[in-house]
Hints:
Elements: H1 2-26, H2 39-66, H3 79-102, H4 104-118, H5 124-144
Helix pairs in contact: 1-2, 3-4, 4-5
Amino acid sequence: xxxxxxxxxxxFLLIGFFIWFAIPYQIEDTGITVMGPRFxxxxxxxxxxxxxxxxLVQNILAGKKQGKEKEDKGEIKDIKSELNxxxxxxxxxxxxxxxxxxGFIISTIVVIGAVVYFLGTRxxxxxxxxxxxxxxxxxxxxxxxxxxxx
Length: 150
């Protein structure tokens, strides 16, 4: 587990650096504003590098604490948890395809409702909260930011 986490943190660290250095070649700077089209991708790449670096340091320090203890290689993977990940991934793919057909509000409520139900939440007020958040996001984008959502 520790080795996999270390490799993943290094991988995402490299991806963050790659994004940072690829931005000038992929996104043209208009020079109109201080925060141009490159700003948000740069912020995301910085966040990716920082989080990956912290995760790498955490893994290295945890590895030193554990010493030379080896992990149990005979560990049986939990197939149910892997199946759950695949089902959630399928729901996200369905969301991408339902968005243009049903629109933002209906597709988001249906897919988030399915995800929340699938994850085991049965409290009725949780469903009201996410419906209210979906409607709030729609209102903010449509009425305040003047951004059209499907």
